């Protein structure tokens, strides 16, 4: 006997802002379903989920939930009006016997329930909304971007909770790792059509690309048929006017079918220009520390960042990742130690709070009013990587419409604000990108494109993100802030860090080499004038030694890139990891020695 659906949408039609999102949509969610809801920003994912939750009335169609069944919805922007604290909001509507559920969710999501609602950040509000939904324990959980603004520890706690729940759930998320681990079916919204696949998010991109390839092939076949029929109409219709009116009508139908097909929205035309080449050493921090009152942010910490490095900073929310970024870029002074910035640095910053965007300005004015983008005497042009461009043309490259260009920034979704900020920083020439939570709210296609651009970028990248998949794709070095002022450097991305750290955070599996101490400055001594024969020989042989070390590091990095190595050959992994750290330290010391000798040799 077939199971009764937990939720059924029949003949659903919905229009938003005069634009039809869905027409004649039929959709069923069964008890126990674990569904990924995916699609481009603006495709209607949140609107569809709000219809599922009964918060939006469709233009046509029906929503059916069986008697006694419950559906709960986690809003991206929860309204806490009327609640004094986050805890009050999370516990609202629950009886005393259910209070333990709130306490358990608060502990897992790591927020203070006594925080005043009026003083809570967007991330804290979202955690409270998530705790409320978990405590309510509905039969169907509808989660709209639950991982945004959660640190990785909280995301992993949520994964464990959802893995063990008996409730059905539908997830909207850009976090590939989260979707892969949890989902068993996929709903894909694409140009008003909702397709369902009875497999989880794993393999979605291959399915999407295959679907699009089939669509392109069918469109190409249709175009050829229209071209052939049109040629017949031009060359032969006058001789067979009466007998072939049916064929003429068929040609008109083909053209109508082709005109009615909705083209896929392209990807944003992102580009990065590193401009002037920076020095080999981009940032050198020696013994830097920071505290705010009694709260220790950073113990004395040393780090050398070289041109081309992609350095990720990971750790719980509030541990000090953004503070460390500000220390390394010179925006904040350390309590002790020194930070030396390399030569010719051109820094572009993507801040997690989008503070560079004025919500009251239009998108047009956000670009033309930016000092680094302004073109003197041209109100409709902006400077893009050294060349003037029409502002509307540039906005279209980032998928903004003409109507949006004159609208306020506050009307944009989170993903659209992220795209606008990327448009601003990508208009500049830069050789050091500082990206603080760039992945929040971006759809999967835009994340893919951003990753590709970063891979081709010849400059240096400092990155804060809680997206584990993105970290694995981009980072070459990971700095883990583990609390109590402790910061530890690991080779590779998130998975490499977890493998090297081992089960105990306090005892990393691979020792971390500290930055070599800077040689004492001996240029003021008489003996330092010129080089001895031995020093000259050393200066001549160092380049070959550096090249050899770089080649060995490349081979070791390639060997360690095998994701199965840690589980299949742990001893080999440990030896290779230790060798990689030792070679990296030796290379840094050799470069330092060459620089010191070269400076002395050139006076």
Write a short abstract of this structure.
This protein has 603 residues and is an alpha/beta fold. It is 40% helix and 21% strand. The strands form five sheets. Strands 5-6-7-3-8-9 form a six-stranded mixed β-sheet, sandwiched between helices. The chain has a six-stranded mixed β-sheet with strand order 14-17-18-12-19-20, sandwiched between helices.
Folded structure, characterized:
By secondary structure, the protein is an alpha/beta fold. Among the domains are: 79-137, no CATH class; 207-260; 281-501, P-loop containing nucleotide triphosphate hydrolases (Rossmann fold, 3-Layer(aba) Sandwich), CATH 3.40.50.300; 526-601, Valyl-tRNA synthetase, C-terminal domain (Helix Hairpins), CATH 1.10.287. 40% of the residues lie in helices and 21% in strands. The protein has helices at 45-52, 86-91, 99-109, 122-136, 152-164, 176-182, 204-236, 245-260, 321-328, 363-368, 391-397, 402-405, 414-426, 444-456, 468-474, 494-501, 533-560, 565-568, 570-601; strands at residues 7-16, 19-29, 34-39, 60-64, 71-74, 140-144, 168-172, 185-190, 193-197, 281-292, 295-306, 310-314, 336-341, 347-350, 381-384, 387-390, 432-436, 460-464, 477-483, 486-491. The strands form 5 sheets. The protein has a 6-stranded mixed sheet with strand order 5-6-7-3-8-9, sandwiched between helices. A hairpin with a 2-residue loop joins β10 and β11 (295-306). α7 packs antiparallel against α8 and α17 runs antiparallel to α19. The longest helix is centred in the middle third of the chain and has 33 residues, at 204-236. Residues 504-529 have low confidence and may be disordered.
């Amino acid at each position: 006997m077939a199971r009764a659906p937990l939720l059924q949408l029949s003949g659903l039609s919905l229009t938003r802002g005069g634009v039809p999102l869905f027409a004649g949509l039929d959709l069923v969610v069964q008890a126990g379903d674990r569904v990924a809801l995916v699609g481009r920003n603006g495709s209607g994912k949140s609107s569809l989920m709000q219809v599922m939750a009964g918060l939006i009335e469709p233009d046509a169609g029906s929503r059916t939930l069986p008697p006694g069944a419950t559906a709960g919805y986690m809003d991206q922007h929860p309204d806490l009006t009327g609640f004094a604290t986050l805890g009050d909001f999370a516990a609202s509507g629950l009886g005393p016997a259910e209070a333990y559920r709130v306490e358990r969710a608060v502990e897992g999501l790591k927020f203070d329930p006594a925080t005043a609602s009026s003083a809570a950040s967007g991330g804290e509000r979202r955690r409270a909304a998530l705790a409320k939904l978990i405590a309510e324990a509905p039969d169907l959980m509808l989660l709209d971007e639950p991982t945004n603004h959660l640190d990785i520890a909280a995301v992993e706690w949520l994964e464990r909770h959802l893995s063990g729940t008996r409730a059905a759930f539908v997830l909207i998320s850009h976090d590939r790792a989260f979707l892969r681990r949890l989902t068993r079916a996929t709903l894909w919204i694409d140009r008003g059509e909702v397709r369902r696949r009875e497999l989880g998010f794993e393999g979605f991109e291959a399915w999407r690309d295959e679907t699009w390839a089939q669509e392109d092939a069918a469109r190409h076949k249709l175009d050829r048929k229209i071209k052939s029929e049109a040629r017949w109409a031009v060359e032969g219709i006058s001789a067979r006017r009466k007998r072939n009116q049916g064929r003429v009508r068929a040609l008109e139908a083909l053209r109508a079918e082709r005109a009615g097909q909705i083209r896929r929205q392209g990807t944003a035309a992102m580009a990065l220009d590193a401009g002037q080449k920076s020095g080999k050493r981009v940032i050198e921090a020696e013994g830097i520390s920071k505290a705010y009152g009694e709260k220790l942010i950073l113990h004395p910490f040393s780090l050398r960042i070289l041109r081309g490095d992609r350095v990720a900073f990971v750790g719980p929310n509030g541990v000090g990742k953004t503070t460390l970024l500000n220390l390394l870029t010179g925006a904040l002074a350390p309590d002790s130690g020194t930070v030396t910035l390399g030569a010719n640095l051109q820094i572009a910053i993507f801040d997690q709070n989008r503070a560079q965007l004025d919500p009251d300005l239009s998108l047009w004015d956000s670009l033309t009013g930016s000092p680094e983008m302004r073109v003197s005497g041209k109100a409709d042009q902006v400077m893009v990587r050294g060349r003037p461009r029409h502002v509307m043309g540039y906005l279209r490259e980032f998928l903004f419409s003409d109507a949006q260009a004159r609208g306020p920034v506050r009307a944009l979704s989170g993903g659209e604000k992220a795209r606008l900020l990327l448009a601003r920083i990508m208009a500049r020439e830069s050789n050091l990108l500082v990206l603080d939570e760039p992945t929040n709210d971006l759809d999967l296609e835009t994340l893919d494109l951003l990753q590709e651009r970063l891979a081709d970028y010849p400059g240096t990248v400092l990155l804060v993100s809680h997206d584990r998949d993105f970290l694995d794709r981009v980072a070459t070095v990971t700095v883990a802030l583990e609390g109590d002022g402790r910061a530890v450097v690991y080779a590779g991305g998130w998975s490499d860090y977890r493998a090297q750290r081992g089960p105990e955070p306090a005892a990393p599996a691979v020792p971390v080499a500290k930055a070599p101490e800077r040689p004492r400055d001996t240029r003021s001594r008489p003996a330092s004038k010129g080089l001895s024969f031995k020093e000259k020989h050393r200066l001549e042989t160092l380049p070959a030694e550096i090249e050899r070390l770089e080649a060995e590091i490349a081979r070791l990095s390639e060997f360690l890139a095998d994701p199965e190595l840690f589980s299949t050959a742990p001893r080999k992994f440990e030896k290779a990891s230790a060798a990689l750290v030792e070679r990296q330290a030796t290379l840094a010391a050799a470069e330092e020695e060459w620089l010191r000798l070269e400076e002395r040799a050139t006076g």
